[in-house]
Amino acid sequence: MIFPLFVILLIGIIYRAWFTLVPLSSGDWPFLFVENIREFSWLPEIRFLWLAPYYQIVTKIVVQYLRVPWEITEKLFWFLPFIVLSFVSSYKLTKSALGSLIYTTNTYILMIVGGGQMGVALAYALAPLVLKKYTVHSTQYTALIANGLLLATQVMFDPRIALLTILAVLLYQIVVGKSSIKNLFLSLGVPILFTTILHLYWLIPLITNPSVVGRQIGEATSAAVEYLSFASFSQTLSLLHPNWPENIFGKIYFMRPEFLVLPLIAFGSLLFLKNSKQNRTTLFFVFLALLGAFLAKGASEPFGEVYIWLFNHVPGFALFRDPTKFYLYVALAFSMLIPFSLERVNKVKMVSLLFVIFWAFTIREALLGQLTGTFKPMTVPQEYIRLKDFLYRQPEQFQTLWVPERQRFGFRSLLHPALDARLVSKQSSISGILAWITREDTKKELDALQVRYVVVPSDVRGELFLTDRTYDEVLYNEAIQALDSLSWLKRISAFAPVILYENTR
Fold first, then answer.
1. What is the crossing angle of helices 107-114 and 118-134, to 10°?
2. Looking at the domain assignment, is residue 52 inside a domain?
3. Integer Cα distance of 271 and 238 in angstroms
4. pLDDT tens figures, 224-268
5. pLDDT of residue 181 exceeding 60
């Protein structure tokens, strides 16, 4: 009993930054003003894709009607449930607190939640439970409905992770299972049909107008796959995320040799095989780990052309333009195989404790509070609250232009949409954007777009004005100087260091 409590304490220390009242907005995770939430419809909106029932409708009820602040709501319904579900779900599969530690705190999932991909994270958290439930075939009516609801919930958070989980179930049946075709059809087919019906709210728009969803999930091309194939095979095989620990997009780190111990322990499970059922289960997870490691590296060598071929020719594979989704398989496999190996060594308690110490060393940045993103909460600066109030009070419809793009605390609404200068100008660099906005014809273009205000945001998260992926205040000042030089922009100084300009027509 002491060891599981120790593991829970360790997990709590790693995620301690979430146990605050400060907003966690970072990466893909937004900050929502209550004015934004009031605009949410009671019916699922396609802009929220499959997340609509939970992200949109539950948020509207809790924040708007129950008056629970967003910074509490996000933790109660997203971040803390991830910790609980990930631990409990993996424990159901592995029957091991050590397995839950591996699954809940490996570098892949720490980078996912640190980057604010909470839909992916919650689907990941449910994957072990789905795998457990769907590999124990039951044709009872209640079990089929329960499994259908479980799968539907996972799909709601992220259908790609759910698809990978179901593929793992099918692989399990090939390697281990002995169910009849009839039982397999009932235990899988009925819940999948049930799930499909529940998700028609976004499947129908996808079928009738694929571009609607396509614009939301990004362009899927083989070139995009090659660009996003950051990980090497040694990293994926060692459950080491290529962006660990800074989680800076595109910045690849060297292989850390200590992580090579993990596959040695995991695949060492092959030395402890005894009975045929155990053999098949272990072989399944070994194969799952190898498959996940091979696919998670994407187009990287060796045999990167295999992933490109699968991407171009296998239906549905285009959903995985980001190959790191396949880290799921490595995490599932290692959370099973590593405890299996350690439990067969003499003095298992001592060996398990030593492994936990080693594991803590591999993810030491998490324990030392050195991770970024959602692990570094930030209070909303007062200048952004004042700007929100200023814009919200204006009844006329207009747009705002943000140079170079909207900061995450910048207010936008259906009445006052925000435009990113980077997109409008089709320029990627700050210098290119400033050259565009100082052209003689730019004012006419902005007038046509009904742009009333131009905003240079204060880059409190260090995400916008970057030189070599580091905040550069020189670029911020250059943007202000360029806009100050335009006669048709009137500077409003009430929101500094957010610099607001009015487009004088």
1. 140
2. no
3. 19
4. 898 889 999 999 999 999 999 998 887 788 889 999 999 999 999
5. yes
User: Do residue 76 and residue 117 come from a single domain?
Assistant: yes
Tell me if residue 354 falls in helix, strand or coil.
helix
One domain, residues 308 and 416: no
User: Per residue, what are the HEC states of 120-180?
Assistant: HHHHHHHHHHHHHHHCCCCCCHHHHHHHHHHHHHHHHHCHHHHHHHHHHHHHHHHHCCCCC
Prediction pTM value: 0.94
321 in the same domain as 413: no
> Of 375, 404, 422, which one is at a domain's C-terminal end?
375
Residue type, 457: P
Question: In this structure, is residue 110 part of a structural domain?
Answer: yes
How is residue 345 annotated by DSSP? Answer: S
Q: Are residues 274 and 154 in the same domain?
A: yes
CA distances from 332 to 102, 108, 133, 171, 270 (A): 9, 12, 14, 13, 17
* Whether residues 183 and 83 fall in one domain: yes
The verdict on 283 and 429 lying in the same domain is no
Report pLDDT for 213: 56
If phi over 0 gives left and psi between -120 and 50 gives alpha, with beta otherwise, what is residue 373?
left
